[in-house]
């Protein structure tokens, strides 16, 4: 049974009551001002087994339970609850003033052990203290000072993640980039940027020394000597040290190269390892850092020619050569990203940029052909990787051929991309729905195959499906309108009815066949479901009464 009393103000804490004497439960409910104390009765159970199911379904904060109950006693219930929900609060009440009970209750870390008959004033005091404890715990989780301290402690790691996101090209939206930069307290104002990759090689460390320690030592040297001068931001990425340096002008690249060259030779002298600093080209915008990183990576590869204890600037070893991707490749990648995320507004803006770029400069026809062919190929790969219908997604073949070989209209291309994006969104949503349906279907199949097992739990089905219990519970209830436990119980009862009407099996045998080790508890659940005992149900149905 579930009871809801709306409380004003803060969200009330949820309480589950468990006692086989309904009169006792009713007195506890009626005699206490639960809302005034900051609590709400979420429901009650008449035995421990039912209470365990309700606790899982209702996600309560407090369980108040009697010790002596059928099918599962209060101590066993408390033990099971503590194993599953370590932060749940338990109050035990009993008509038995026995030392062993109290001793075990203490070992289970219950909040209070009360004797019947329960004194309302005493119980009110217990819950007021309990609320103060729950409030402290909630405040601890929400404490802004603590969160701020944690945030500051994690800031260096988050700043490194930001650097990695920049070089991987995952931060292309300028406004979002600025917001992250500011929230992470990163001074990235340029006006010029360049990426340096520091690679450590030729390590001959002792067996008990990790080679990464040398990279850490080199990092310390860089931070000590160059971090302030070039306003460096550093991150360990793919085994190397990746650095974003800031310059006042492009001409400062020469001085930076000399400084890193000196540091590489110093590191080799100090640590007897090869340290190469690959330096990319200078870029005026943060979003171009990925390009500079590619060039720095190319520069590092030249250590085989120029030696592994120096700084190598790509501008010097490959004058006039750039590792920059064609703008078409980057634009196509951005279009697909916005399609995948369903960012319609961002997609429209990117297409406007593409239209402008295709209309600028000479060779407009050639540039258009290159762009549209790369876009069609990428969209085909997109459909394959997401298991979508490529023909339905891209439209008629004649339309694609016209776009590639006949049309030279960027506007027509943009209109087609928007149509494709709309179809992709519809197909992706349908696939997600199918996945959810399949997900729930597999859970139902699991129930059909295992309903006779007495140890079927949410945790067991989640292990079978390979998903978290939180995600499973949310999806299952959304699709079926029931919790998993309720669905399992209903299915077992359906099978029990079938066995009652088609076999002569005794009640205890039917209980075993539908997953109940305790035939009395089976009868209790059956009566709760159908309003009569299994024996009476069989008699009435078979007699036609």
Molecular structure report:
The chain has 545 residues and is α/β, with parallel strands linked by helices. It folds into four domains: 13-142, 3-Layer(aba) Sandwich (Rossmann fold), CATH 3.40.50.2300; 149-317, Reverse transcriptase/Diguanylate cyclase domain (Alpha-Beta Plaits), CATH 3.30.70.270; 327-430; 451-543, Orthogonal Bundle (Arc Repressor Mutant, subunit A), CATH 1.10.10.60. 62% of the residues lie in helices and 11% in strands. Helix 4 (74-84) links the parallel strand 3 (62-66) and strand 4. Helix 15 packs parallel to helix 17 (364-385) and helix 17 (364-385) packs antiparallel against helix 19. It is extended, with a radius of gyration of 34 Å. The model is unreliable at 1-8 (pLDDT under 50).
The count of strands amounts to 10
**Amount of helix:** 55-70%
What is the assembly state of the chains in this entry?
A: single chain
Mind describing the biggest β-sheet? 5 strands, parallel
Structural class: alpha/beta
Give the strand order, joined by hyphens, for the main sheet: 2-1-3-4-5
Label the CATH architecture of the largest domain.
2-Layer Sandwich
Taken from the alpha-carbon principal axes, the silhouette is extended
**Uncertain regions: pLDDT < 50 for 5+ in a row?**
1-8
Tell me the number of helical segments per DSSP (H or I, 4 or more residues long).
Answer: 26
CATH homologous superfamily heading of the largest domain: Reverse transcriptase/Diguanylate cyclase domain
Strand content: 5-15%
Mean pLDDT: 83
Number of domains: 4
Taking the alpha carbons of the first and last residues, their distance comes to 29 Å
CATH fold-level topology of the largest domain: Alpha-Beta Plaits
């Amino acid at each position: 049974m579930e009871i809801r009393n709306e409380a004003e103000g803060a969200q009330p804490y949820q309480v589950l009551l468990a006692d086989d004497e309904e009169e006792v439960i009713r007195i506890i409910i009626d005699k206490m001002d639960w809302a005034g104390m900051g609590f709400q009765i979420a429901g009650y159970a008449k035995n421990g087994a039912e209470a365990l199911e309700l606790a899982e379904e209702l996600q309560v904060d407090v369980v108040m339970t009697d010790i002596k109950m059928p099918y599962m006693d209060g101590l066993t219930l408390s033990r099971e609850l503590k194993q599953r929900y370590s932060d749940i609060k338990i109050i035990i009440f009993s008509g038995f003033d026995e030392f062993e009970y109290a001793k075990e209750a203490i070992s289970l870390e219950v909040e209070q052990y009360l004797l019947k008959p329960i004194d309302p004033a005493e119980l009110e005091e217990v819950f007021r203290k309990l609320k103060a404890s729950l409030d402290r715990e909630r405040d601890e989780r929400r404490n802004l000072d603590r969160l701020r301290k944690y945030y500051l402690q994690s800031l260096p790691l988050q700043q490194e993640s930001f650097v990695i996101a920049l070089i991987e090209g995952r931060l292309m939206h300028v406004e979002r980039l600025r917001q992250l930069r500011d929230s992470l307290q990163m001074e990235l104002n340029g006006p010029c940027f360049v990426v340096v990759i520091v690679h450590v090689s030729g390590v001959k460390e002792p067996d008990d020394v990790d080679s990464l320690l040398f990279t850490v030592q080199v990092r310390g040297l860089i931070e000590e000597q160059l971090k302030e001068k070039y306003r460096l931001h550093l991150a360990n990425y793919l085994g190397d040290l990746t650095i974003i340096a800031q310059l006042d002008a492009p001409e400062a690249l020469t001085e930076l190269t000399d400084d890193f060259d000196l540091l590489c030779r110093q590191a080799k002298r100090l640590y007897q390892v090869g340290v190469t600093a690959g330096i990319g080209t200078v870029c005026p915008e943060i979003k171009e850092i990925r390009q500079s990183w590619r060039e720095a990576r190319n520069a590092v590869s030249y250590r085989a020619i120029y030696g592994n204890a120096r700084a190598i600037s790509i501008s010097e070893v490959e004058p006039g050569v750039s590792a920059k991707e064609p703008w078409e490749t980057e634009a196509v990648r951005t279009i697909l990203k916005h399609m995948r995320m369903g960012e319609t507004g961002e997609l429209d803006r990117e297409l406007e940029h593409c239209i402008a770029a295709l209309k600028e400069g000479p060779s407009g026809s050639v540039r258009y052909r290159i762009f549209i062919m790369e876009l069609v190929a990428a969209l085909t790969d997109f459909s394959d990787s997401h298991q979508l219908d490529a023909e339905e997604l891209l439209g008629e073949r004649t339309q694609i051929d016209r776009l590639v070989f006949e049309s030279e209209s960027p506007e027509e291309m943009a209109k087609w991309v928007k149509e494709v994006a709309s179809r992709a969104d519809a197909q992706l949503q349908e696939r997600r729905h199918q996945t959810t349906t399949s997900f729930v279907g597999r859970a139902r199949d699991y129930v059909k195959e295992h309903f006779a097992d007495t140890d079927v739990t949410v945790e067991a089905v989640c292990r079978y499906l390979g998903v978290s219990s939180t995600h499973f519970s949310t999806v299952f209830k959304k699709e079926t309108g029931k919790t998993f436990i309720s669905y399992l119980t209903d299915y077992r009862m359906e099978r029990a009815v079938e066995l009652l009407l088609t076999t002569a099996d005794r009640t205890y045998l039917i209980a075993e066949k539908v997953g109940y080790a305790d035939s009395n508890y089976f009868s209790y659940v059956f009566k709760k479901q159908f309003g009569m005992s299994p024996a009476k149900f069989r008699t009435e149905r078979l007699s036609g009464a």
